[in-house]
Q: What sequence folds into this?
């Protein structure tokens, strides 16, 4: 069986026949004289010791926790794509029917509340930390509902504030968003960070995705960004 040798001069690793065990010879690369280890000097790496309770046969009783990997099936991707197209088609129809005066506020509020939970759930399934046990069942839906309410509230409060204190004065400029959007990201990102256990960057991306979808829907309805 070949013996693994590491040259002390150039640190090159190579194998030699076991018949040279304990003998000296030059390194094939740098010609440094080295001694081939004896067979009993080779390190033997054992499998890691199993911890926890063991049965009569010495085998571990408890099985390690298998991490669940995210998998995206073609069926799921098709459902998401179809739902997205239907959503934007519905937004276009609403904007067409209320082209003059714009959609009523109650319709926009209902749409925002209905839209937030699916976006929150979809974003969480993509951005969650694989090293943490995912939220499931009732706990997951409660957290999704809370984050969805916070997301919708941040959008509503920002829109009302701008229309009350800026648009009435006919002084709205794009730079006004520089004061509002960071506050929205701070509140929305903290909600997803605290409720869904997302990392800080992932929480910001999660809320940013919600903002992107809502802005695109408003533009589809023929409305402004705010």
A:
């Amino acid at each position: 069986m070949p013996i693994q040798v590491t040259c002390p001069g150039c640190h090159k690793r190579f194998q030699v026949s076991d018949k040279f065990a304990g003998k000296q010879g030059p390194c094939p690369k740098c010609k440094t004289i080295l001694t081939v280890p004896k067979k009993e000097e080779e390190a033997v790496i054992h499998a890691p010791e199993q911890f926890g309770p063991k049965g009569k046969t010495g085998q571990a009783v408890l099985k390690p926790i298998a991490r669940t990997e995210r998998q995206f099936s073609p069926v799921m991707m098709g459902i998401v794509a179809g739902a997205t197209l239907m959503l934007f088609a519905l937004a276009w129809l609403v904007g067409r029917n209320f082209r003059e005066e714009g959609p009523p506020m109650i319709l926009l509020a209902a749409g925002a509340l209905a839209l937030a939970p699916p976006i929150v759930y979809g974003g969480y399934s993509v951005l969650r930390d694989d090293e943490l046990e995912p939220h499931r069942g009732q706990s997951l839906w409660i957290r999704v509902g809370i984050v969805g309410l916070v997301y919708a509230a941040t959008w509503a409060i920002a829109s009302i504030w701008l229309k009350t204190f800026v648009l009435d004065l006919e002084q709205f400029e794009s730079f006004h968003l520089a004061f509002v959007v960071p506050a929205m990201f701070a509140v929305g990102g903290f909600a997803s960070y605290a409720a869904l256990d997302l990392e800080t960057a992932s929480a910001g991306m999660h809320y940013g995705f919600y903002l992107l979808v809502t802005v695109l829907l408003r533009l589809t309805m023929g409305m402004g960004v705010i």
